Amino acid sequence: MTNQLYFVFDSHCPWSYACLPLVNEIAKAYPEMELHLWHAAHYAGKDSPSEKQVQAVKNDSVAQFSKEYMANLGRKKNSQIAANVMSWLTNKQPQHALNVLNSIMQQHFVENSDMDTPTNFEDIMTDLKLSPPAKAFKDKLSNDAQQIIEDIGEIQELIRMRSFPIMLLAMGDNAVLLDHSHYLKHPAKIVEAVKLELNK
Length: 200
Known about the structure:
Elements: E1 3-9, H1 14-29, E2 34-39, E3 44-47, H2 51-60, H3 67-71, E4 77-78, H4 80-92, H5 94-110, H6 122-127, H7 143-159, E5 166-171, E6 174-177, H8 190-198
Parallel strand pairs: 1-2
Antiparallel strand pairs: 1-5, 3-4, 5-6
């Protein structure tokens, strides 16, 4: 039986950013667990997180946001290139996906990069010696990214929840939704919750 973790997120979503340390802790504790990092591509250049939302994330998690990011909250966000890159990684280079996601979110929320042009990704790709295809850097969703969005829709229908982030632990034919809200201030504690589920 293969244990799998599905993390549904948007790279430009503050709550997804707050959940990333939990995913990192699970990956560290269970390196053999298969990770599915599914980008929801929610931000398409039409809106941005509100100051109220980001303040709630800061209050309820260990997430750190730079002053520069906070000062530019009104600027509209577009995560479609990040969605394309992450979908390519999911399909072709899954062993690098979590490292890339950490780098994308670090650059966006801490270094205040919009992460919406190909040049924003150059250093990440160079550091990891990755060569995504040109289609990953177009400002419209690739077929791979659209397929993942369809898969996300199936998960959302299954759990009867349209929002994200989602952390779903799958164990063979069984699956359980991990309530990430309990662990945002103490990310390492989610490992015990996963352990309890795996031992049932």
